[in-house]
């Protein structure tokens, strides 16, 4: 059994490929299944409808200039 099933999300994997609609199943804190919408047959403790939402597993925003320390240990000012 899955712990959580996210249904109908637009999955963006961070590779630069176009996003695609899928159901994503989570078990023990890890992605257990990514499948076409409505094709996951395994039960889940919780189910969430993510239609119209973006799911980006393991995609992290790069540091911005205001959050990246410089070599001197001070904050780098944002670009003009």
Main sheet characteristics? 5 strands, mixed
What pattern of helices and strands is seen along the backbone?
Answer: EEEEE
The CA-CA distance between the termini, in Å, is 51 Å
Shape: globular
Low-pLDDT windows of residues: none
- How confident overall, as mean pLDDT? 83
Total of helices = 0
Rounded Rg? 18 Å
Structural class: mainly beta
Strand content: 35-45%
Count of extended strands: 5
Assembly category: single chain
- Percentage of helical residues? under 10%
Question: Can you tag this structure with a few keywords?
Answer:
single chain; 80 residues; mainly beta; 0% helix
Polypeptide structure, described:
The chain contains no helices and five strands. The chain starts with a strand and ends in a 25-residue tail after the last strand. The chain is globular. Strands 1, 2, 3, 4 and 5 form a five-stranded mixed beta sheet that branches. With 80 residues, it is mostly beta strands. Helix content is 0%, strand content 40%.
């Amino acid at each position: 059994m899955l712990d959580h099933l996210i249904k109908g999300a637009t999955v963006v994997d961070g590779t630069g490929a176009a996003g695609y609609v899928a159901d994503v199943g989570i078990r023990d804190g890890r992605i257990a299944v990514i499948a076409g919408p409505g094709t996951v047959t395994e039960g889940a403790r919780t189910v969430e409808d993510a239609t119209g939402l973006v799911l980006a597993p393991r995609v992290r925003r790069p540091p911005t200039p205001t959050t990246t320390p410089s070599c001197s240990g001070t904050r780098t000012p944002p670009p003009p």
